[in-house]
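User: Small ask, check this?
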Amino acid sequence: MTGSGLRSGELADAAGVNVQTLRYYERRGLLVSPRRSPGGHRLYPSDTVTLLRVIKTAQRLGFTLNEVADLLAAGRRRHRRTDNGLQARATEKLAEVERKMADLTVIRDTLRAAISAGCDDLVACAGSACCPLPFTELAERNDHADHC
């Protein structure tokens, strides 16, 4: 680190990202364009390491970069509105994650049922009333079938 800031490579190493990520985040407005050294090197404030870690953590939690940008902007405003802050956004994201988990549970259970039923050919399964896969015609037939 130089006395006046972190160069791109130093910042990238400290934050665990690559230099191209820094440039991308600058273009997206997540990072403010840094000042330049007399030699033309980008010099980032040391607190940019924390900001990058915040961005990467938010991404790991499922937030898109647009959502991260909104969260960062909401945090910078003096008059924080709770409808745009982390609490509201985290609540929305949690509901989204729970919906995805429910969908994945259905997919998992259906795949387990297909394995247990010995399904080995999608076309053959589509024609069988005993196939657990959710073919549209099958769902209508299974409503009328007693059991396999």
The chain has two domains: 8-87, 91-144. Confidence is low (pLDDT under 50) at residues 141-147. The beta strands are 35-36, 42-43.
